[in-house]
Amino acid sequence: MPGLIGLNVNGQRVEVPAGASVAAAVATLGVPFRRSRSGQPRAPLCGMGVCFECRVQIDGVAQLRACMTPAREGMQVSTDA
Question: Which end of the chain is more exposed for a tag (fewer CB within 10 A), N or C?
Answer without folding.
Answer: N
